[in-house]
Write a structure and sequence with these properties.
This protein is mainly α. 74% of the residues lie in helices and 4% in strands. The protein has helices at residues 2-20, 25-46, 52-64, 68-71, 77-94, 101-158, 173-200, 209-237, 252-256, 262-272; strands spanning 162-164, 168-172, 206-207, 276-277. Strands 1-2 form a two-stranded antiparallel sheet. Strands 3-4 form a two-stranded antiparallel sheet. Helix 2 (25-46) packs across helix 6 (101-158), helix 6 (101-158) crosses helix 10 (262-272) and helix 8 (209-237) packs antiparallel against helix 10. The longest helix is centred in the middle third of the chain and has 58 residues, at 101-158. The radius of gyration is 19 Å and the shape is globular.
């Protein structure tokens, strides 16, 4: 428990630094690092690290994606993504005796999925500025982490009906409901507190609480799917945790697996329904 608490404190301090530098390339660098570490953990769990050429190609693409808009513009992104996949196919032809087509598909898909998901936070910042980006990023993380925490305690107290007994035996339907409701309640409270904080430093914002509630509900539901998908991957790969970079919590993927599907939900939602008015 002490390890979990210490890791959480260190994580929160790092998050605070990132939020302070949210409007700089620090955010891009952190997103790039998270993408690379997550891919390393996934490739290690799946046994793909032995295919160094595939892994390095995926890392190059994932590492540059969070910087793409700043340096190149998104007009070239579809072409670069296609070139990335073509490079993997060329490697398949070159090393066909050692690399299976299934490996190329898996590495290619993960190499796009992970950095694209994390990069949605950069897109929020680019579209909404510092205040709007920080606000949405906090709600994004809250949707995943509040849902997980509230589901845990609700499940322990009231859980009777298994949600996915084979994939995750401890998750219950009651925990799911508690997680969704708890995430909405916690995010609404956090939105109110963030508005007070930003107004106190001279940034006038108006929170659209109905939109925040709807976005959180969708995001929390997506976080459950991401968590269950990650649990499935761990079971099929025969690992308990993806890593141990965060003592007591596991690896980057263990902490952010539920965030991966929340980020595109929040980005798309904010594109059509603003969460705040500045």
């Amino acid at each position: 428990m002490k390890q979990r608490i210490l890791s959480a404190v260190v994580g929160l301090l790092i998050l605070a630094v990132v939020l302070l530098g949210f409007n700089t390339l620090l955010l891009n660098m952190v997103i790039s690092l998270l993408s690379l570490l997550s891919l390393y953990e996934l490739f290690h769990a799946a046994g793909y690290l032995r295919h160094r050429s595939l892994v390095i190609t995926a890392w190059v693409y994932a590492g540059m994606l969070p910087f793409f808009r700043e340096f190149f513009g998104f007009d070239f992104l579809p072409l670069v993504s296609l070139l990335y996949l073509l490079a993997l196919l060329i490697l398949l032809l070159r090393f066909h005796r050692f690399i299976r087509f299934q490996d190329v598909l898996s590495v290619g898909a993960l190499g796009i999925l992970i950095p694209t998901s994390f990069t949605n936070v950069v897109l929020l910042r680019n579209n909404l500025g510092w205040a709007g980006g920080v606000f949405c990023a906090m709600l994004l993380l809250g949707s995943a982490w509040y849902a997980d925490t509230c589901a845990y305690f609700t499940g322990r107290a009231f859980g009777k009906h298994k949600l996915a007994p084979v994939i995750s035996p401890h998750k219950t339907v009651e925990g799911l409901i508690g997680g969704l409701v708890g995430a909405v309640a916690c995010n609404l409270l956090m939105a109110f507190l963030l508005s007070l904080l930003m107004n106190s430093i001279g940034i006038d914002i108006i929170v659209r609480y109905a939109a925040v509630g709807c976005a959180t509900l969708l995001g929390a539901a997506a976080s459950v799917i991401g968590d269950l998908a990650a649990s499935t991957v761990k079971r099929q790969c025969g690992v308990k945790d993806f890593g141990n970079i965060m003592p007591g919590h596991g690896g980057i993927m263990d902490r952010f697996d539920s965030v991966l599907l929340v980020s595109p939900v929040f980005y798309l939602f904010s594109c059509f329904v603003p969460l705040i008015i500045i």
